[in-house]
Amino acid sequence: xxxxxxLLQKEPSRRLGSGPGGGDDVKRHKWFQSINWKKVEARELxxxxxxxxxxxxxxxxxxxxWTTMAPDDSPAPTPTAGEHFQxxxxxxxxxxxxxx
Length: 100
What we know:
This protein is an all-alpha fold.
């Protein structure tokens, strides 16, 4: 099974990283095989790209189509808004029961 399907398992206890190895299972996945986690933890890695930011409101790194767009409030959902999720199920975690 691929990386993303392992993360997106419907049952939380079956997801990558939820087993006895925890986050180490995620770090050992082949998706991250080129990552030196000791250097990450020691903050010794330099980013491959560091954007120029001139201030907290700087938008220079965003396409103009997004930064010139007029703000629009999100409309209230319609009764048919959930039709895209037919057949989707969600298992909410129960904090009082052990998972597994």
